[in-house]
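Why do we bother with holo predictions? Because pocket geometry can differ from the apo form. Keep that in mind while you read this record for adenosine monophosphate.
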Amino acid sequence: MKVLVIGGGAREHALCRSLSLDPDVTALHCAPGNAGIAEVARLHPVDAMDGAAVARLATELEARLVVVGPEAPLVAGVADAVRDAGIACFGPSAEAARLEGSKAFAKDVMAAASVPTGRSYVCTTPEEIDKALDAFGAPFVVKDDGLAAGKGVVVTDDIAAAREHALACGRVVVEEFLDGPEVSLFAVTDGETVLPLRPAQDFKRALDGDEGPNTGGMGAYSPLPWADPKLVDEVMETVLQPTVDELRRRGTPFAGLLYAGLAITSRGVRVIEFNARFGDPETQVVLARLRTPLAGVLLAAAEGRLADQPSLVWRDDAAVTVVVASHNYPGTPRTGDPIEGLADVVAQDAPHAYVLHAGTRLADDGSTVLSAGGRVLSVTATGRDLGQARERAYAAVDRIRLDGSQHRTDIARDAAEA
Ligand code: AMP
Ligand code: GLY
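The structure, written out:
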């Protein structure tokens, strides 16, 4: 089948890599893509946010399946435009993607479906904000209601900083602080049947030891040796299935990837957030472990046939991914620097370790790869356990040279030693 992937980050590179290894995929296209995706898919300079243009491209390419990677086009209705053109699309409608696009909407769905999450207030005035901050006390959790590219959430002990962020947002959700390790669990769903993937853990802070500002994610690993083996079943029963059922009941079924960001608190599992798409960088490690060819699963979800899909098959391997970011990320990053050593990773580390590109582009010479964003690339590695996967990932990271770049050195360290 011919597949078109929309987006151009490391998540889309991971999706394209898996799809390129799937024998059922006869042609793979991506818009807009990046320098790494160009090695496995044909790129098209189409704006991911333009639903009409994406639908036109999919029609021209005779795509059997379109996969929309990032949240912004989903919230903007790009999946609806593709489906309206009669083409199967993996990704929720704009209505269902509000689960990610509005924190207040997500809270409302969770309340209706009795899904465990932090207590919260939706606030629009300074008086409501102060009342909510007072009610919960420190640490304060303040979330912009709308999409904010990973920068909408402030967690702080400083009430002045919490208030300042809340006032800057307009409509905010003020939430109780949830203590405990975080887990990301993804599920593929057609709006009715839910197929959970394997849990992963993401590292959100910029610096080692979970210091520094929040980022889009600096690394991830899977499996989670410390987690309760019953965690996936529990989250299926208390979170994923009830949420999917509630959205179907409302007449806006969610078909695509449902991402549950969870806190494992002393009082049980709580939802921190939902996303309406594969997470980055967790996708890199989850897909590295999936043995079942990907295209058929995504197509079955897009066509409402997930109930007939055989169980997913997983490798025993562990996987670790380490993000290499530009100088100054998550502030305004420095871009346009050459990235060296990519060929050395292919020569010395493949197939156990490989580079997935995020913010990269080809220079005018057609061969030099340049940094073009905050998160530049991620190195993903597999191994018999987290220790080996970690060693392989960092050996490959050490071969990559990008002036001023930064990465965390403690991805999966505690879990590997546990
Ligand atoms: P989000 O954008 O909702 O994923 O939030 C970003 C990060 O903020 C999460 O991964 C958590 O580390 C943190 N966070 C969000 N909500 C809470 C909460 N209620 N309690 C503690 N930390 C939170
Ligand atoms: N890894 C966090 C996210 O994708 O939102």
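The two ends are 43 Å apart (CA to CA).
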